């Protein structure tokens, strides 16, 4: 049985200009006992559906210790680096992945489809050869696709976890289906990026 349940994730600041930060309010419930190890949250921008080589980790934050009960926090991360996005994938639909891991094992992944497009109708009809990101808007589709992985909360991953994770990665890139998710944190929070913030609500 999972010790942590993600109750809800809400997108803030949406739609917004391309260079605006990503913001999510995440609600979770720790059911059984205080976790021995901190939770690691990661936000990844899928730069291209053709290859994971263009994925960008926008930020990683570590949250803990997490006491038993219901908690809510804000995860904010900067926009992706435009220079790392293929020109052919600048406009159109891509995805962002919000994941959480315990003892380096991912147990939940919340994926959102993202649409980048120009605001000006003329630029929409005649996109410039060099993408102009300062004239783009970013719109995150509100209904996420949620995938959960079975892990051994004592430290070892269940045998089927790696296969399930590989199948889900392919499905996220090839399948446009979406699904709904199932049904005060006082902690030490560390962010690897000095440009992003995470705060307690």
CATH class bucket: Mainly Beta
| DSSP strand tally | 12
The domain count comes to 1
CATH superfamily: Histone chaperone ASF1-like
Rg (C-alpha, Å): 18 Å
Oligomer type:
single chain
Number of helices: 2
Q: Let me know the average pLDDT.
A: 80
**Poorly predicted runs of 5 or more residues:** 155-201
Gross morphology: elongated
Could you give a short account of the major beta sheet?
8 strands, antiparallel
Helix content: under 10%
What is the CA–CA distance across the termini?
27 Å
Strand fraction equals 35-45%
CATH architecture assignment: Sandwich
SS class: mainly beta
- Element-level helix/strand string: EEEEEEEEHEEHEE
Q: Would you give the CATH topology?
A: Immunoglobulin-like
Describe this structure in words.
One of its GO terms (molecular function) is histone binding. One of its GO terms (cellular component) is nucleus. With 201 residues, this protein is mainly beta. It has one domain: Histone chaperone ASF1-like (Immunoglobulin-like). Strand 7 and strand 8 form a beta hairpin.
Give a quick rundown of the structure.
By secondary structure, this protein is mainly β. It is built from 2 helices and 12 strands. The longest helix has 14 residues, at 161-174.
Which terms summarize this structure?
mainly beta; 201 residues; 2 helices; single chain; disordered C terminus; Immunoglobulin-like
Secondary-structure map:
Elements: E1 4-12, E2 16-17, E3 22-30, E4 39-46, E5 56-64, E6 69-77, E7 92-102, E8 105-118, H1 121-125, E9 136-140, E10 145-148, H2 161-174, E11 188-191, E12 198-200
Antiparallel strand pairs: 1-3, 2-9, 3-6, 4-5, 4-7, 5-11, 6-12, 7-8, 8-9, 8-10
Keywords: Chaperone, Nucleus, Transcription, Transcription regulation
GO molecular function, one term: histone binding
Subcellular location: Nucleus
